[in-house]
Every structure is written in C-alpha cells, then in structure tokens.
Amino acid sequence: MILYFSGTGNSAYTAKRIGREIQDEALDLFDKIRNHDHSALSSKRLWVVAAPTYAWRIPRVVSDWLMKTELEGARDIYFVLTCGGGIGNAGAYLKRLSEAKGLRYRGCAEVRMPENYIALYDAPGREEALALIDKAEAPISAIARRIGEGAVLPGPSATFKDKIQSGLVNDVFYPVVVHASKFRVTGACISCGKCEAVCPLSNIRMENGRPRWGKRCTHCMACICRCPKEAIEYGKHSEGQPRYVCPKTVEAPVYKNNEAAQ
To answer: Which domains does the chain carry?
Structure first.
C-alpha cells in the first residue's frame, strides 16, 4: 500500500504513478491527518510513503501520524520524497522512524519536482513545470521498478551540509518559519471556502466570509496555491508570483485488499 500526503499535488502524482506501475493501492492521508484518524491499516505486500520534503526531512505532520498509527501485515517500508532541490539527510531520520515502528527500512528516494514553496521560493510557470515533471518521469519509473522488485532504494549520499540542513536547520526552521502569521487575504476573495476545505490541519476557519488562520499551520501551501482567485498572499514574497498546483494528474487503479488485479 502506498500512503501519500500532498499539499499541491507533486507527491500525489508521484504516489499514483508508482501505484500504477507496481499495481498497488495509493491512499491519500489528507482525511486521516485532518481527522486525527489513527486507526490501524493493513498491507499484504509492502508499505510506501510518498510525501514532500520540508526543510530536508519528511513533514512532521506525516511522521507524527506514522508514529501514532499501527501498520499491520507487511514489514518492509519505502519512502519517496518529492523536492525542489534535494532531501538532505532525510533518510537517516526515516530509518530511525522505521526502526521505532518495528518496520524494515528499505530506503528513501528523491524525486525532483517543480518548486511549490512560494513562502520562500518562486514557483515555475505551467510550461516550465510540465517540463520538470516530464524530466521526473524516468526517475519515478526507476523507483517504482526497484520497489516492485523488492530492491533497496539507494537514495542520495548525505554530505556534511545535508546533515546540518536536515538536523540543525530543520530544528530551527519549524519554530521560526512554519507559522501562519504572514498569510493574508485580499479583496479578490469570493468567500468560496476552498482554503478552509484544503487545509490538512483544519487551521483555517471562514469568519464573515473571510478566512482566518490559526496556529497549527504546516506550510503545505495548499490554501495559497489552490485558491481559485489567487486571493491569498504570504507576506510580500508571493505578490505577483505564479501559484503552483501540479498540472498533471494520473488515475491509479484501485486494488481491493491490497492485491493486484488478476
């Protein structure tokens, strides 16, 4: 079973592509994380977790959910992280997480996808994004092939810089940067409530037709990027910048009982 978390679609696309190639179910964790649903899951084949990279590690909302949820059946677990630049030393932390859950860590692979973290970086336009995704197709297929064969995902080698980024920088990044105080809504808002609906932490509430952010933000960028009117800004950086939602979709087959169709 493939478990994925995705704010703007990169990890969803990657997870479904892998699911289609290895003929396995891809399960969106959005509702489970939003509803604090930690009921046990079962997989007969293996586990694959696909997620974005936040400050050179798996998002804390995903690691926290994994630690609180019983994964039954299969004992092998793979991780696939989408990123704009690199995943640093994320694999070392994922190995520890796997061992803490009694699972056999089978490696972590990175997939370079279009940048979506418009709180700090510029997202590409549609054509550039499509070109970047096309470039990612071969690596995704190679990762899926290795997973399907039961081979270990080697992952990138971690440099000293990677270790600092995934360690010290990640520790500082969350308390200093990951908060919702810089989000604001403009007059273009049509009170549709889309931002409230796409927040995985229920951190947005509509009040008098306008969104208000709470204190549980994870910086997934779903609210600002999925707003149909681009009526949400993040400080000054997002002004005039393109929003990003993965421009490609894939429908993965659904396999009941986690078994491939015969």
So the answer is: 2-161 (3.40.50.360), 179-234 (3.30.70.20)
